[in-house]
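--- STAGE predict ---
source: upstream dedup step, 1 unique chain passed
mode: sequence only
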Amino acid sequence: MIRFWPVLVIIAAFGLPWLPGLPLFWVTLGNEIGIAAIVATGLVILTGIGGMTSFAQASFMGFGAYATAILSTRYGVSPWLGLPAALLASGIAALAIGAITLRLRAHYLALGTLAWSVSLYYLFGTLDLVGRNDGISSIPPLQLAGVKFVDVRQSFTLIALALLASLWASRNLLDSRWGRAIRALRGGSVAAASFGVNIAAARMLAFVYAAVLAGLAGWLFAHLQRAVNPTPFGLNASIEYLLMTVIGGAAQLPGALLGAGLVVIVNDRLQDWLPLLLGHAGNFEVIVFGLLLVLVLQFAPSGLWPLIARRTAATRHTIGTIALPKRATPAPGPALEVSGLRKRFGGLVAVADLTFSLSAREIIGLIGPNGAGKSTSFNLLTGVTKPDAGTVRLAGRDVTGLSAPAMARLGVARSFQHVKLAASMSVIENVVLGAHLRGNASPIAGVFRQDRAEEAALFGEAMRQLERVGLAELADRPATSLALGQQRIVEIARALCLDPSLLLLDEPAAGLRHAEKQALAELLRKLAAEGMAILLVEHDMEFVMNLAARLVVMDFGTRIAEGPPAEVRRNPAVIEAYLGSAA
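--- STAGE serialize ---
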């Protein structure tokens, strides 16, 4: 029955408001819940999943409402043609505001959107174009096949179908290539960028998508209320929409409907009950909502929906059998050449004139005591951090200072010293993120599920890499539920999904058992034999010395030795760096 829930929702949308004896008051309240839930659905994508808090959603709803109101009242445009205009107006407004505001992070972004909300509210109230504070009235109702949507029961059906379409489109987006990029923004943006995800584009996509859904809600509001003014599009409304999202479950699409229902119904009841209890009128419901929010954050920080649906079935992905095109086998010769690489953080020289080279089919180890500058060197080589001086050449090409996505496009993949997996995604979803650049489907293709063939191919590649590293049976498990050693292997599988020519692994053997280390060493030897160049940072000396052909030793950011493992082991400078001069 769960498979056919959309059909059940459609039947309910057409039949529920016409139940005998159902008061029209509750149907009207249901309409309000549906419109609010559409806005909250966008906030689930933006805030709950993308990690960007916005207080401007009611403003974007206003752009949609005013756009269709102006067209239909002043130019006689059909309300149905006002729909694309409303979506376009909200989307363009979000693009313009996002281009400025999305440069901010964390609470600065929230404050930025709050400032926009206040500014736009007063702008709506002073512009003659939108009727100042009086707004626009006599907006024509929606009409289909000669039937005007003037009855609240007819409106209920339309709003329910619009909400269903919003949830369906949002679910499709999250299950797409760009949806995974949005999901990786919360806690995994550095890793996502290292595999070619355009983080700025992913943030903008989430911001604009949420605004477009708010524009849809504004279009419905304008033609069903038949009048608009600035009041429903102010800061208070934006705060309520955010409250709905948090209470329902900020990272859960069904939580948008649950939160909208609770907030709208409780708000309506409190407005009636509190004056009776306290003996005089006032906005006491605001105080009660504040207390409710504190309680929810205290006892259900993920919202109420996860408490209702504690067990959610893992998403099943189609595993394709058609292999993705592979990168050309690197030619023999230097794959990586590093010369005079330097990086300073304030008064600390983290990397000082680092120089070494790495050839195709070669494995070398970059070792040194804690704080020697190894991970910083990795960040410099992969574009996460820009060097102050020196050059980096990849297969003879100067790539110094290129961004992490640009390095990924050139075939550079990596793992991290501290595991960076998206907690909200399964093992295979984290791994397929490494193949982001090997797909090209647009977000629109994802929303309308026109990317299924490509998705099957990407997940097929991810499954092949999981089988390669021995974790295929854990593909559908939450990534962060695995042991630390297994999570590191997941990172390696994700790196292999890029089909790299240069693989940089930061402490890949940490947390692995002896047999797992042997299997990892065998895999790395096989990858090198296939033409890959591999650079390891590793503290397990037995592991790295039995695997690497050469070792580069760093101490305090400087290369102090380089050569075969046996030679490095006897080097007095290396012994002093690891054991101290007394040794």
